[in-house]
Amino acid sequence: MASKKTRRRDLIQQVVQERGGVSVGALAEMLGVSTQTIRRDLDILCRGTGLRRAHGRIELAEGRLNTPFDQRAGTNLIGKRAIAEVAAAQVPDGATLFISIGSTALSVARSLHRRKELTVITNNLSAAVALSEEVSNRIILPGGDIRLPDRDFVGEEVVEFFARYRAEYAIFGTAGIDADGGLLEFHRAEVRATEQMRRNAQKSILVIDSSKFGRLAPAAGCNLADVDLVICDHPPPPAFADLVAGLGEHVIYAEDRDGE
């Protein structure tokens, strides 16, 4: 089994890949350790891993500084497109829905381009822009600062924002899925926002690709079993087979439906 140091350093690398850069203080708070511990980790990680220190932060090194969100959005395009089409088919014209942050949720928004008269409540600016092309839609966004380069809104204000609305559908992703089916995120505020959407929707829809199974992130949320429908590109690794089998008809493998 990997040591605590190894797991923590793996998490640091994942966070930097997700965000492009993060402060030492934020990492210490996120991982529940001292800033001195984080600095020792960074001494190791900055030796040939494509990371660099910069003004109290850890960032992707030069040559790897492409926009992290755009990198994620450009991976597994076939799988995400299949997931998005299945998710979009769940949503009729005139529906009210929550859409979360993340590249897979954005793919769903783009697949909803044929829907009309939607009411979309989202903290995902890119999803809002995609759906604003249909003038019959109503788009509701939270206020506050936009997190760049992800082009989304996060924080406690967003949790309060979602608490003020009810929707027929909540469409959201997750950073990782633990061995027990727990949904993982990189920050507690992201967990709380997702949970608020899920509780305030009549039907919750988790959209993920199979790479999320076994992927670590520090903040734990609800469980796969708490979600009404899970849409994935294809079955997860064998270690998760029994877990997913327990979901029964509540899981759909989008790529298996191609040609139906």
From TrEMBL:
SMART domains: DeoRC, HTH_DEOR. The keyword Manganese does not apply. The keyword Cell membrane does not apply. Keywords: DNA-binding, Repressor, Transcription, Transcription regulation. Residues 5-60 form the HTH deoR-type domain. One of its GO terms (molecular function) is DNA binding. This is DeoR/GlpR family DNA-binding transcription regulator. It comes from Sedimentitalea xiamensis.
